Amino acid sequence: MSVFVEVDHVDRIFSMPNGNSYVALRNIELKIRKGEFVTLIGHSGCGKSTLLNIVAGLDQPTHGGVILEGRQVKEPGPDRMVVFQNYSLLPWLSVRENISLAVNRVMNKLPQGERRSIVEHHIDMVGLRHAADKRPGQLSGGMKQRVAIARALAIRPKLLLLDEPFGALDALTRGGLQEQLMKICEESHVTCIMVTHDVDEALLLSDRIVMLTNGPEAHVGQIIDVPFPRPRSRMDVVNHPNYYSLRSEIVYFLNQQKRAKKLKVQHATAIARNGLEKVNLELGFIPLTDCAPMIVAKEKGFFQKHGLEEVTLSREPSWKAIAEGVATKRLDAAAMVAGMPLGMTLGMNGKPPTPVITALTLSRNGNAITLSKRLFDQGVRTLADFKAAIARTPDKVPTLGVVHPSSMHNLMLRYWLAAGGIDPDRDVSLTVIPPAQMVSNLKAGNIDGYCAGEPWNSRAVHEGLGFVIATDLDIWQGHCEKVLGVREDWANQYPQTHLALVKALLEACEYCDDRRNRQEILDFLCQPEYVGSEAVYTRPGFIDSYNRGDGTAPQMDLHYNQFYVNKTNCPDHVEGLWILTQMARWGITSFPRNWIEILERVRRIDVFGQAARELGLQDMGRDRHPIYLFDGTVFNPDDPIQYLKDLPIKRETRIEEISLDELVGARS
What we know:
This protein has 668 residues and is α/β, with parallel strands linked by helices. It contains 26 helices and 26 strands. Among the domains are: 89-156, no CATH class; 280-366 and 478-665, D-Maltodextrin-Binding Protein, domain 2, CATH 3.40.190.10. Helix 2 runs parallel beside helix 4 (141-154), helix 3 crosses helix 4 (141-154) and helix 9 (292-299) crosses helix 20.
């Protein structure tokens, strides 16, 4: 069914009297089908009513927009009717007159008799024939709300908007009106969006429930499909086998948000208000092509521009050293592999948890899977060929190098192998090797291939040691790759310094994706204190066409190394959730039952948004939609546990709630 209403990346930012701004809603993306009943739920202050008012045209978004049947909503109109909690009836008019007022205004071209018939039909529809001539002061609360609903439906709107319509009513009256509203909506096929705090009401009425996170910067945390067949009755819903599990899921989400709000208040007390708390920083990086933003920020003066007077870039020997450097506070921050902040926060591979956050994605793509020339000479060209080669030599298990357990190199290599029916823990042997040592290990015959970033794949091709069987563009184009990682307690202690660091690197990312700057950046990278590589095998993918070394013509892809374009930099929660499922899949961490809470804490969209706005850059987040990888499997971000259960090759997975209180203690 086609999209009827589209909420397209809506932000709502309010100006404050002190000159600051308050971000009420951030990157709200929602598609609603014709005839669908969608409910918005969340704690007070999460922007539910603000979003409803934007859809109604009573308020305007700061960014983004609302499309109704192909037309942008710019003002109120009779195609959208709002039913408020406070009824909004004219006290000097009767029930009939209140409804007639709307009908006569909107349908003034219809004959008077037809308009009168519409009014009387809707009086009967809501069961108020006996009270048609009474004024609002003579009606109960429930009767007033029925008048408001009849008035809204009488003008035949395309969209009915309900703002906690039953919130002020007693339970018995509320129950009766809910049943009546269900019947009316099913008979008239009207599309509805409702705001409520009532979990049971949402389950009774809705086709989908959209759960919003806390404000400020409230966004869609999770969407639940309600599978109860229509027409519905209250008892049918309560007795449905999925009722209590869905109810528990919603309550669990709301409780996560309550805990997160409490934690945010605790953190806020430590935040300095003026100036940078620290201006001399030690930042870690690994010698790879996609360390470019850090190098550029140093060489082009972006760090100093934002008040960071002395920044030392520490070239680290391995990703393990990066993790240990940040954990022990030797490093203030570092460029990290994408899964490292989540892995360190959860305590990967049995290590004590160290809460680490990221407010910036530094790069996307840039990796490849390289296999040895020996395998190429044996006819291996595809994943299926590789599986057949493994089967031919059961006594010799191939060894493949990965750079770190929490890296996308490890997770995507494992995903690629498993998609081809190869168990990455049983059919091959995976070993952790620093990126710069991959080529020498391949040359020595210690490994049969590896997954790493550039320039180490192109160097193997250049030296005739191997060929690229797949790049990450073949597996998942546009995935997050490197992120900025800082300890959570460091960010809380130095909030303005953290913000300045994010701004400097965000400007550097923008500079890196202006291709006119690529040659200059390449010259920086090839310097011995940074990557120290030869330009001939650092250029492919970064500037020149990419050569796989398999006899095919080199291909140019402008996004092989991506630093800024296509909304690269926002620390997306959906990607983080996929990473959590894959780390749980292979036993690196348990899967957090309270994943929304963990993602809100680790992947700091709010800090990114503030940095982007202060730079005058677009702070729009990435699209919230399922992830499609090369094998056709769909990752649904609203049901990650079922996704985990459905994966055919995996280790025994642990699903458990992660105590935020324990993580708070782990900061010290």
